[in-house]
Amino acid sequence: xxxxxxxxxxxxxxxxxxxxxxxxxxxxxxxxxxxxxxxxxxxxxxxxxxxxxxxxxxxxxxxxxxxxxxxxxxxxxxxxxxxxxxxxxxxxxxxxxxxxxxxxxxxxxxxxxxxxxxxxxxxxxxxxxxxxxxxxxxxxxxxxxxxxxxxxxxxxxxxxxxxxxxxxxxxxxxxxxxxxxxxxxxxxxxxxxxxxxxxxxxxxxxxxxxxxxxxxxxxxxxxxxxxxxxxxxxxxxxxxxxxxxxxxxxxxxxxxxxxxxxxxxxxxxxxxxxxxxxxxxxxxxxxxxxxxxxxxxxxxxxxxxxxxxxxxxxxxxxxxxxxxxxxxxxxxxxxxxxxxxxxxxxxxxxxxxxxxxxxxxxxxxxxxxxxxxxxxxxxxxxxxxxxxxxxxxxxxxxxxxxxxxxxxxx
Length: 410
Known about the structure:
Radius of gyration: 20 Å
Structural class: mainly alpha
Distance between the termini: 17 Å
Low-confidence stretches: none
CATH superfamily: MFS general substrate transporter like domains
Mean pLDDT: 88
Number of strands: 0
Shape: globular
Number of helices: 21
CATH topology: Growth Hormone, Chain: A
Number of domains: 1
CATH class: Mainly Alpha
Largest sheet: none
């Protein structure tokens, strides 16, 4: 495609990534209000978010044929509308409805990575691929920035219902905005693919995802590195607001700290993606990020009661820069390590593993809080697993046994 085409493609995917993340962060951002309205303890927002990530897994495991049938742009539009419906369901303040909303919101987020990767892999210049993937993925924390700066204050002053309605409106507008790109970017959709319930829910959809992640050299270690990072990121995105409210900040202040974390994540994805392109050693960069992420997670978990917004925001930003700055590098590596015609499938398979981390980490974190009565211990344990993964992969690199480093860039 032409140079103009990849810019249009990046604008469309980035815009929908921001909107999807904005709606995805709506529930944890107003989490203290939602848990109060539904009679849950504050830390139970982790279980609600775990349900959302479970919805994401359902899409990735069984519903990828939708992407092939309708094309990436139409799939992203449908997902934006579904997420908006989820936001409206959450306004009921009824616990079963909140869980349904979480499942639907997670399901609607499922197409984001494989659809975006398919578009970017087909349009991005190879020498800038990691940077372009990282810019696209910067939409995830940027959506969180907007959630922290917009939805938290709306929730603080007007309640969670206006906040969720506002998020729904934004999702619908984003889906409408990318319609002009559909003719160009959905040209290769396959109308012969069946999307009947029987075709979508067949066992082969599940097994094909498992095969894709094991079939190509280098995918597994890169995916496990990202899995370890996703455990930290999922916990930070889920619990930052609730954790800081428990430490003495009000909802608007905690939302501001979340915005600091997410702004740093935006910056980290772009800067670290650019750096990975310059060094030509993205896996080594991810290993170094894992050690830095573990260290800053420890510091974040040691925030004292009665902390100031300045300290909370600074630690959140440091943690977010490295712990939420890996996604573009990871997706670019998946695209590099996969055959060109299997990028969407490999990305989906890898994201199944990643979202297992996203889905399990909030539930495990919640259980650890209930078991230990402490917010600090879960942060320490999660930081420890990231440092361990970085050590294992670092040893593989030093001994020349890491399969990804021996593969030439596509």
